[in-house]
Design brief:
The chain has 176 residues and is α/β, with parallel strands linked by helices. It has one domain: Rossmann fold (3-Layer(aba) Sandwich), CATH 3.40.50. Helix content is 46%, strand content 19%. The chain has helices at residues 22-33, 40-46, 64-77, 105-114, 119-130, 133-141, 155-171, and strands at residues 11-15, 36-39, 50-54, 59-62, 80-83, 97-102, 147-151. Strands 2-5-1-6-7 form a 5-stranded parallel β-sheet, sandwiched between helices. A two-stranded antiparallel sheet has the order 3-4. α1 (22-33) packs across α7 and α4 packs antiparallel against α5 (119-130). The longest helix is centred in the C-terminal third of the chain and has 17 residues, at 155-171. The chain is globular, with a radius of gyration of 16 Å. The N and C termini lie close together (9 Å). The mean pLDDT is 94. It is found in: Cytoplasm; Nucleus. Keywords: ATP-binding, Cytoplasm, Kinase, Nucleotide-binding, Nucleus, Ribosome biogenesis, rRNA processing, Transferase. Residues 114-124 are annotated as: LID. It catalyses: ATP + H2O = ADP + phosphate + H(+); AMP + ATP = 2 ADP. It holds the Pfam family AAA_18.
Length: 176
């Protein structure tokens, strides 16, 4: 796998359907590894990297070009954990590891309902998980050896994932 010689620390993408634990996992991993946690949803709001609001799905319409422009320098530098529910618009060269979090449907349903998801927004996200849309998207967008699917149903799962990823970051060697 081609790595950038100027990157001393890896970049990790944590993706998955909303409610799979991306932010919880990314925050814990950032704390354990001292990598920078970049929550794309927050970044889009803070820096206005969107083309307005989608009333039907109750979310911003992300401007992918603006997001990529905003992240370019940080990603070249390395040491980032990018937290987002999509992955196919990021440049392949940015990531050394792509984590797809997966959650059992009943667990996911409860998590999203607690967040106030209803109607199409709830249905769309549950179907996205059932059909493993994000895992397929990741496999189509990144080298196979980079993509790892991890179970994220419980606090124990998240804890185990963070430990495994922390070990991976510690062993990561940009010259290998």
């Amino acid at each position: 796998m081609a790595q950038h010689s100027n990157r001393k620390r890896p970049n990790i993408l944590v993706t998955g359907t909303p409610g799979t634990g991306k932010t919880t996992t990314s925050s814990a991993l950032a704390e354990a590894t001292h990598l920078r946690h970049l929550n794309i949803g927050d970044l889009v709001k803070e820096k206005n990297l969107h083309d307005g609001w989608d009333n039907h799905l109750r979310c911003h319409v992300v401007n992918e070009d603006l997001v990529c422009d905003e992240l370019e320098d940080m990603m070249e530098e390395g040491g980032n954990i990018v937290d987002y529910h999509g992955c196919d618009f990021f440049p392949e060269r940015w990531f050394d590891r792509v984590i797809v979090l997966q959650t059992e449907n009943s667990v996911l349903y409860d998590r999203l309902s607690k967040r106030g998801y209803t109607g199409d927004k709830l249905t769309n996200n549950i179907e996205c998980e059932i059909f493993q849309v994000l895992l397929e998207e990741a496999k189509e967008s990144y080298p196979e050896e980079t993509v790892v699917a991890l179970k994220s149903d419980t606090i124990e799962d998240i804890s185990r994932n963070v430990t495994a990823l922390t070990d991976w970051v510690r062993m990561w060697n940009p010259t290998s």
